User: What shape does this take?
Amino acid sequence: MKQFFGSSQRGDLKEAVRGLQNPQLILLMSNQEQFETHVQELERLYPRVPSIGCIGMSYDTKIVEKGVGVVAFCEGVSAVANVLEQVSTMPVKYIERLQRDVRMVSASQKDTICLDFCSGNDACVLTTIYTVLKPLHISLVGGTGDGGRVSANGQIYEDAVAYALVRNNHGKIKAYKENIYHQMGNYRFIASATDKSKYIIGALNGQPAKQVYQRILHVSEQEILTQTFKNPFGKLNGGDTCIVSIKEVNGSALACFRQVNDSDVLALLELGDYRAIVKDTIRAIRQDFSRISAVFSINCLFRYKLFSEDNYMQEYLKEMGTLGSHAGLVGYGEHFNNQFINQSMSCVVFE
Assistant: This one.
């Protein structure tokens, strides 16, 4: 298969798709003001080609912050795109669409991936989708777009998740997740006084969450929102750790970007040597693939901010580009199989 990436920093979609011929699937990453126009224009330019889209930054060798980016898969893939609606209340109502699409592409573990762009309520969405994917051992990679809107096949939806099933007809597919954090000391907490609907942690080990975080890290209230780049929480899930980013201070509580429940066990994390970790990820991919056609990745907005502040973002894209054709989305939350994660990278590699 071949991966196409085109962009326009000024938001000119025709410029972004210049040279794109015979796509089997198109991924659109647009800006807030032009999203609706871009969705409609893309459908006119490539009618009946499966597509999903969201509001967000994109990249290949450089970042497209406010314009438009287009990723397309061409030659040797089978793809279908669709949407699950009412994700805040009843996404399972539309699950037959996914079941039908899985059959349509003859999805299998070794050569199929599910890509998704979500408008919100990610944890519930992933649980729903994974009821179909898990029995087939099919991986999922995706992320949250901005503005509460996504698109599928030329239509814009609110309160929805747009997904694409992609089968590589000439090789394997494998998904990866990268975590650049590790546990800090022996700090472990039992969460309480949580508000699941607002993603709020009220207390940690019975103490106000804000004061606990400040006391350990010696930061002011104003510094909490940037300190989370270096010290997020980690929700312990068996042998895995799902990163929980802090969104804002809410009185003596902390509002986060993913749900935490009463009695959840949390660890305090600290930033590792991310340059070495990125190299390890690239090394692992090379060990698994002797030939790479494309890499599509989702990077967290907070990773983008951290890497940019450390003048590493351009170097990071160059490093990932050594694998071959690499493109992706800067998301507001990352998806890996049934996990909704923060401050992470997830990606899919095509042979």
